[in-house]
Amino acid sequence: MTGPHEGPSKDKKVKKKVFLGEGDVLNLALSIGQTQEDSVQQKKEKNSKTKELTKVKASASRKHSERKDKLAETKTLLASKRAKAKKEKAKKRKSQKGSAALPSAPGSEAATKPGRKSVSFA
Length: 122
Hints:
The protein is mostly helical. It has one helix at residues 22-101. The chain is built from one helix and no strands. Residues 34-122 are annotated as: Disordered.
């Protein structure tokens, strides 16, 4: 009586393990090599996309700094224009004060105020 843990009975033939033939081994090696090349190619593509994104980010940051520079230049230009306008306005005021302080022509009056009279309450 043969149990499940005993070896095969003498009635049944034992199948021998068949290894791959030479051609099959070469085909298997080629398919493994192709799979590895495909995975390497996918990694390269992924890395190149990452590098491109990094380059895009770098150029975007440069654009940001260029925008900052442009903004600073514009602010400086506006400040200089305001300062120039302020100086011109001050010159106009000075010239108006200067013309009012000059003695008026002999036929016109009213440029100067009459002097105040002193009043005492004693």
